């Protein structure tokens, strides 16, 4: 019979984590569906459960002058409602589209990255925001850039004695605006065919001085499009949709699966990026209006 | 005169219970010491079982019984072939638990019964089975090809059935035609996915030797008969109840599923109630599915577009077993000519085994495939002849004065020649054109183009043979104490609102409010003659039986009331629960009539006391109960349709496609339908729109996918995408009511109507939208975005660049 | 086995449960409140939606033990005696249900939706907010109509903030 631990402090949780193999449970919105798909009805042979949902210190969103810190229990609903800089608009849009309200009320941002699905909605957003992941163990704390945190299909660098404690995001440059688009075979509660997130900042004359663009579901791990970002720098924001070239997407390796063919994914990713740039370049006008 | 409720949107009687969480679905039934069953299911599409070791499972704490084919006695036999047919060349049905071979992923291999479901599932995982996997041909065309891997070693070519039917002389028609149009269409596999899965709960009472079974079935009487015969128990000692059932759509009509036999068997053997509740994964791998067919259809036409002849050859995927015989393929092949005269028809099909979940009817039952084939062929014919799509249809419609229209030689699923009873097809088409705004189509297309989108017109016309026989019964009784009307019939409900429409039918005859009619169906303890709920037949067949019984009850009430009030029967009217002399306030209540017609010697309630102040209810000499008479007001009658009634309708849609992302947006959807006289338009609309949502799934979202080894790839709601509220377009419904001449109420069935034409409509809209881009024809259903991408040459462009 | 205590529909309850017991099983099996249904096991269908501390969630992906000390409302806790909640009444009047299996979850989601938006809802909002609830019978039209009517009734009867 599996044991169940529900500590109220991080210290206790890390002690449990170090002592035995456990399934870490926060909102449960990924852990349980995956279990149902595989075996259903729980499984007596499975790991013990470490439920971290009662650890108060993991629940906070903190904003300081140079960064924002999202505790490991921050839910999609908290993200959606939080008062955040405009660069987070994409991440907040993604939060609105994840799994439906009842799932958003339970599911956590950190759970999404620990599941490390190629189609995890939050991951391209975090890439576009240059996020770092904070991990803790009895040995101490460390931070890892998001692109290094996820190493492959459902694989992360989180050690067997570690817990992710927070997402750290540097305060975005002035004037940065974010956005997110995804394509699924259905409007909601669907594993994405492709998704894109971008954060772009332009100066008063409309010239881009910061650009980060990431694409999810089109490779084993979501990817930044560094060539495209380089091509945008120094260019007028209004021209961004026209600067997209096929070669900018070379980093992507979309596969065909039951949801879509690789070619279609590839093409959809380009169209989504173009649509996103059209929206972002229209943004200042919308704000002015 | 009483207010007639027929045709009124009367609110449903059962809703208060369901709205407050007081429904009683099978998992809600609380039985003391109930044990729970769980099943070990085959992980292989086709394999030989070389050994099964259940010792660890038996030893697991909390386990009460572990069953394989070796310890279930005479239950270890082939389950029945429900509808035999001479064209079945290799009919095979499955055994409750696999013996020696498994034929699909999900087939039941062993059953564990334990103190709770968690323990039963744990013990299932302790059973060790050695399999020797066999090669498989999973896709329909592969399974039908020469040299295919066989599902059943002794069924050559995987051909379960081969059938040819002719009406008129197709060869002669093709010989004299100016033009022949030929297309091949493919419809994919789907599943009913009712929100409540299947469920069975059984209790054996060894003192009274009575077996009580709760089964979420659409056919409780058949289940009762089968269990009585399997367990050799007198039929009267087996009671089967289908309580609240959370949707069925055909999936719950198969008789027998293994679990339906094994759970009662375990309850008897263990002398303890046993329950099994299907989980969602099991519903995807252990409950039947339908739809895969590949049709090659040819139309022989004059240059003016009159279709002289039709040939259709198709393959039908029946999965690993064929318990329903050729029912689905037969319905498809006999519905193929749609609303068109087409006097010369040749239809041929082969039902092919594939190593997948067995196939039985799912809402629509062959009709969506037939509709897709004929409607896409009519569009192609119009295109090839340079004619308008609407005009080609008009030139071929059966005219209102041509009914009954018989297709001699084509036998429908009821074994009778196809014969359409009534319809106004041309009017339906015109109404659809008007409601969709056909005259503004060019304008709307231009508007879409201005937004970077492409808009097309979708069109689909369907006919549906409904209300199949053989018969159903209606039992009507007026309760002597309350005066309430009790109505029973043998079939069962899965949420359609039977109880309300049946109540309306009885209420109209007896002059009461429908809320004073108590309908009990799906309980063999209440009524046990009848067939089942399928083929859009409940309202037509049970409805007319109840109407006939209630009409007779009305005559009995009038006669008794006339005697009691010493008036002429012609002066009696029934209203507000009373029989009254017209134009006076002299009246008796129905409770008093029911009491007075029951010559008891003691009075125990108000009606009994008050009834004595009137004259006797019966004028006769001799003993209190006249010779040949029964006490009270109670009637049982039956209705057996002469042949099926044919409902029909026309759907039209404005479908917009994004040429870059290849997504589809349905801007407007019109459904013109005619199911004869409507008993309750609110319930009819609910049925039509609900059916449409399933049709929408079949057009754009839902496809059960298997890999090349026969493993299901999307056996859950995560990957099998059913429409949410955001997927359903706005729907304008236009009702037409052409009465059926075949039954007293003039009604036709409506349960499946909404589903049939949706794939043909939406997909023809996609094709029309993308014509300017040269995308070609869309002859597959469903259409996913990546298929549009490929039609637009996206894959080629991607390869080239 | 952990001991779990919570308040369900205003009643204090507590029981010893296996750690892997889901909230929905606790509600159905221990408390015999069977109006909350299980339709999918994968958090897609919403038949199991209940309110925990005033928020809608799916009880099929929540452990009972995680709701220690919480206040839970199920479909059984919505009506006041024989008086249906305005949202239940609206579902009845608009034929917003057929088989009734998804209905408790639909109604719990609908009430939560109205409370979050603070009043009357338009069709588009309702459709988008129903993203977590599947129905296989109705095609959703009447559910959307019912929720619109229910939101109006809740607003005019002052029940938006009261719950």
List the topology elements.
The complex is a heterotrimer of chains A (289), B (801) and C (163).
Chain A: E1 4-5, H1 10-19, E2 22-25, H2 31-38, E3 48-51, E4 61-63, E5 67-71, H3 76-81, H4 89-97, H5 101-104, H6 109-115, H7 122-128, E6 132-137, E7 140-145, H8 146-149, E8 150-152, E9 155-156, E10 163-170, E11 177-183, E12 194-202, E13 208-216, E14 223-224, H9 226-232, H10 262-288
Chain B: H1 15-19, E1 35-41, E2 47-53, H2 55-59, E3 63-67, E4 101-102, E5 108-114, H3 117-124, E6 128-133, H4 140-144, E7 159-167, H5 170-176, E8 179-187, E9 199-205, E10 210-215, H6 220-231, E11 238-241, H7 258-270, E12 274-277, H8 280-286, E13 293-301, E14 307-317, H9 327-334, E15 344-352, H10 367-385, H11 389-396, E16 405-411, E17 417-420, H12 425-436, H13 441-450, E18 454-466, E19 472-478, E20 485-489, H14 498-510, E21 517-521, H15 538-565, E22 572-575, E23 578-581, E24 587-589, H16 590-596, H17 606-611, E25 634-639, E26 645-657, E27 664-674, H18 681-701, E28 731-736, H19 753-756, H20 758-769, E29 780-781, H21 785-791, H22 794-800
Parallel strand pairs in B: 1-12, 8-29, 10-11, 14-15, 20-21, 27-28
Antiparallel strand pairs in B: 1-5, 2-4, 2-6, 3-5, 7-15, 8-13, 9-10, 9-12, 13-14, 16-17, 18-26, 19-20, 19-25, 22-23, 23-24, 26-27
Chain C: E1 3-8, E2 11-16, H1 23-30, E3 49-52, E4 55-58, E5 71-73, H2 86-93, H3 103-117, H4 123-129, H5 141-156, H6 159-162
Parallel strand pairs in C: 1-5
Antiparallel strand pairs in C: 1-2, 3-4, 3-5
Helix pairs in contact in C: 2-5, 3-5
The assigned CATH architecture of the largest domain in chain C is Orthogonal Bundle
Multimerization status: heterotrimer
CATH topology of the largest domain in chain C: DNA polymerase, domain 1
User: Helical percent range of chain A?
Assistant: 25-40%
The global form of chain A is globular
CATH topology of the domain at 177-288 in chain A: Enolase-like, domain 1
Strand order of the largest sheet of chain A: 4-5-10-6-7
Average pLDDT, all residues of chain C: 93
Terminal Cα span of chain A: 62 Å
C-alpha end-to-end distance of chain C: 33 Å
**Can you tell me the CATH architecture of the domain at 177-288 in chain A?**
2-Layer Sandwich
Number of domains of chain C: 2
Average pLDDT across residues of chain A? 88
**What fraction of residues of chain A sit in β-strands?**
15-25%
- Rg of chain C, Cα atoms, Å: 15 Å
Order of helices and strands of chain A: EHEHEEEHHHHHEEHEEEEEEEHH
Biggest sheet architecture of chain A: 5 strands, antiparallel
CATH-wise, what's the superfamily of the domain at 177-288 in chain A?
Answer: CO dehydrogenase flavoprotein, C-terminal domain
How much helix, percentage-wise, in residues of chain C?
25-40%
